[in-house]
Amino acid sequence: MSFSAPPPAVVPLLPESAPFTAEQRAWLNGFFVGIFAPGAGTPMPIPPDALAALTQSGDLAPPEGLEPQGNADADDGAPWHDPSMSLEDRMNLAEGRPLRRRLMAAMAQQDCGQCGYVCETYADAIANGSEKRLNLCVPGAKTTLRAIKTLVEETSAPPAKAEPATSTMIPAKAHAPAPKPLGYARETPVEVTFLSRRKLTKEGSEKSAYHIEFDLEGSGLDYAVGDSFGIYPENDPALVDALLAEIRAPADFPILDRSLRDVLLSDVALNSAPDALFQLLSYITGGDRRQKAKQLALGEDPDGDAAHLDVLGAFEKFPGVRPDPEALIECLDALQPRLYSISSSPKVTPGRVSLTVDHVRYNIGERLRHGVASSFLAERAREGTKFRAYVQKAHDFA
Ligand SMILES: Cc1cc2nc3c(=O)[nH]c(=O)nc-3n(C[C@H](O)[C@H](O)[C@H](O)COP(=O)(O)OP(=O)(O)OC[C@H]3O[C@@H](n4cnc5c(N)ncnc54)[C@H](O)[C@@H]3O)c2cc1C
Question: Backbone phi, then psi, for 220, in 5-degree steps?
């Protein structure tokens, strides 16, 4: 098996010798991601001990899934746990190890917590069958997803079966995962209310950072200094309308009991075009276009533009294609929540939570691209806008 992908960018982080506890370092590192990282949204590596504390990694169910968990590999030192290493090198280091270790090597090694786990516990959960979603590694993106799928398909378990709108599932002798507390996990968000935003950076500054406030009243949410706040954003309506126009699909096309436009706004990711979308395009095009779509579906890059193809960009590349709206939705990934380090203290502003958010914007060709969540917070949310949100706890923050 061979995997190749460019090594992920590594962003400097607070050294372990810095005068902070592990949990404080984790919180600060997350905060720095948003404010200082080039192309924020590519989280930096956070020390595993700190991130283990940030997530509820103790919930792993007993070994009944794809592979029993033993402790034979417990002291293997995970030499692949280095975000600057290429995927290919990581997989080579894990070659011959149990599935759960090879799955761990496939993760982006950033321990960013966005999946609700750290790299090791997410891999364990897939291997033991308690986690069926294979596509939660945000920094690993499509290359990690492809590697995980390959590993899962290579096991003796029945092959993975695609599920609609992201939940790439694996059949396994899986037991139900432990229920997550309401409002304290990405799976159990509650409703919170957007209160206000205030721009922190000066006009003309290269970065645009905002102080954002939410009202937690009625949500049942509580937090402590050091926790992170997860929010489910909505896509930019202008982007959704441009996509509908490109594929000439009616906004009110019914998808179950909702409209196509509504599903595109709030359910599916419109950034990086998934392999499944190119597969769909290969079914409904012909000739050279079909060959290109097939190559893109396999992770190849025939025209050197694959890294920049979002969903609209994919349809612009194959103009005139009109997919069936339901098939389109089934090909797209679910819109993922984003984490933000909480910058308020419940003692100072009880019932409210504040965030410091960098507005992600960048140009690809002629089109200005906007970060989904940061632009929702920085531009589109209005006082009273409801968000689905959760608190990701950082335990034992000193
Ligand atoms: C634990 C944790 C804490 C965090 N805390 C904070 C915080 O306090 N404040 C904060 O602002 N953020 C924070 N982040 C980051 C935050 O979660 C989001 O990732 C960030 O806001 C971007 O999300 P988005 O939806 O706006 O952008 P997305 O729609 O996710 O787009 C971001 C993606 O756009 C692409 N991109 C960005 N710039 C470029 C470019 N120049 N060229 C090409 N592609 C580019 C990259 O692929 C990047 O991954 C934190 C993350 C973690 C994991």
Answer: 75, 5
Cβ-proximal residues to 126 (8 Å cutoff; 6+ apart), any chain: 65, 66, 100, 103, 134, 148, 152, 170
β-partners of residue 353 are 214
Q: How many C-beta neighbours within 10 Å does residue 193 have?
A: 19
User: Could you tell me if the ipTM is greater than 0.95?
Assistant: yes
b/e sequence 333-347, b meaning 16+ C-beta within 10 Å: bbbbbbbbbbbbebe
Domain boundaries, the chain: 22-154, 190-234+336-392, 237-331
173, 65 Cβ separation under 8 angstroms = yes
Closest CA to 371 of 38, 31, 40, 9: 40
What's the gap in Å between 312 CA and the centre of ligand 1? 20
Convert the pLDDT of each residue in 167-211 to its tens digit: 444 444 445 567 778 999 999 999 999 999 999 999 889 899 999
Q: Which CATH superfamily is domain 190-234+336-392 in?
A: Translation factors (2.40.30.10)
Ligand 1 atom, smallest distance to 343 CA: 8
Judge whether residue 246 has pLDDT over 80. Answer: yes
Query: What CATH code would you report for 237-331?
Result: 1.20.990.10
* Main-chain dihedrals φ then ψ at residue 375, nearest 5 degrees: -75, -30
Distance 371 CA to ligand 1 centre (A): 7
Distance 13 CA to ligand 1 centre (A): 16
Residues in contact with ligand 1 (CB, 6 Å cut-off): 30-31, 33-34, 39-43, 112-114, 228, 233, 271, 338-341, 355-358, 360, 362, 371-374
Å from CA of 326 to ligand 1 middle: 29
Residues 6+ apart with CB under 8 A from 301: 295, 307
